Amino acid sequence: MRLADLRATLALGTGLAKVVRPGDVIALSGQLGAGKTSIARGLLAALGLEEEAPSPSFAIVQPYAPPEVRLPVLHVDLYRIDDPAEADELGLDDARYDSLLLVEWPERFDESYWADALWLSLTILPDGARGLTAKVPAAWKDRWPLT
Prior knowledge:
Elements: E1 2-3, H1 6-17, E2 25-30, H2 36-46, E3 61-64, E4 73-77, H3 87-90, H4 92-95, E5 100-104, E6 118-124, E7 130-135
Parallel strand pairs: 2-5, 2-6, 4-5
Antiparallel strand pairs: 1-7, 3-4, 6-7
Organism: Sphingomonas turrisvirgatae
GO biological process, one term: tRNA threonylcarbamoyladenosine modification
Protein name: tRNA threonylcarbamoyladenosine biosynthesis protein TsaE
């Protein structure tokens, strides 16, 4: 899929917001500046977040809860995580029961940790647009591609 500009990237997040459920994991992979946080911002805005979502780079986990958003969300940035054992300290396994997880830099953990995730990989194309490829697990087969 080709995302021509920032508006298209935010729109993808908006479309995802229409189909996400508690317990879903969306893994957002790609180089710095590829659009991972923009997808998350579009999704969070469509779930009701009124202000612009900050990048969770320094907080590592940025939680959102109703009534701020329609359903509980953890926006996670694993860029600064060196040891996958730190996942236990972040409480990500527990959050999978009732929250949506938006995970930037998921490749910092073993891919098997995200076996059930909708895995979205972004690349920056020569013309500045973004290329998007998706790895779609069984739980997402009836929701992807977005309509």
